[in-house]
Write a structure and sequence with these properties.
Strand content: over 45%
Order of helices and strands: HEEEEEEEE
CATH architecture: Beta Barrel
Radius of gyration: 22 Å
Largest sheet: 8 strands, antiparallel, barrel
Oligomer: single chain
CATH topology: Porin
CATH class: Mainly Beta
Structural class: mainly beta
Distance between the termini: 47 Å
Shape: elongated
Length: 191
């Protein structure tokens, strides 16, 4: 009998907390939901030259379960490789927008978004010992389209919450395994 009373009490307490949370907080699924996420993470571009990306995502729900977002990511890296006698600098900047869907409740939410935009890529290789090379500097600048998929997870029920993102770049299709993919964690703020 004591087990049934404990179970009934637990159900009543949890349901009461759930109702209070829905009355006082803007849920991830509501139409009024707007947020800004700031994340930093790990890039999976190449084992030697992987920049640490800084990601900004603004998300706004169009209707419950359907949202658009603005995606901005910047990865900067500078490295000196004494074994190869060269320095390496790289800038990888992505700007885009996307639409997608999200599932979850007021505490936990996972969103799946398709991203379309542009990417600016800059790299500079410079040989330290220029007597060995005819041209000791190689500079690459490229502006190209960007197509990707963003898996966005939010955990928390206050104005500030925990955010985690997994971004997979799909373009160019022939080098999909060598494209710049990354995982990042950070914080977000609900407006």
């Amino acid at each position: 009998m004591l087990r049934y009373i404990t179970l009934l009490t637990a159900i009543l307490v949890v349901s009461n907390l759930r109702l209070n949370a829905q009355d006082t907080l803007i849920g991830y699924q509501s139409k009024a939901f707007k947020s800004l996420d700031v994340n930093v993470g790990l890039g999976f571009y190449a084992p030697l030259y992987s920049p640490i990306p800084l990601t900004f995502v603004y998300q706004q729900n169009i209707k419950p379960g359907f949202s658009f977002l603005v995606f901005s990511q910047l990865g900067i890296m500078s490295k000196t490789d004494m074994y190869l006698n060269m320095t390496y600098k790289m800038v990888n900047w992505i700007e885009g927008g996307g639409i997608g869907t999200s599932v979850g409740n007021t505490i936990f939410n996972i969103g799946f978004h398709a991203i379309v935009g542009g990417r600016f890529y800059f790299s500079e290789y410079r040989a330290i010992n220029s007597e060995l090379y005819h041209n000791p500097i190689v500079i690459t600048r490229k502006l190209m389209p960007e197509l990707g998929v963003l898996l966005n997870m939010k955990v928390g029920k206050k104005k500030i919450y925990f955010s985690s993102q997994l971004y997979a770049s799909l373009y160019p299709f022939k080098n999909i395994l060598e494209n710049f993919h990354n995982y990042s964690i950070g914080i977000g703020y609900k407006f």
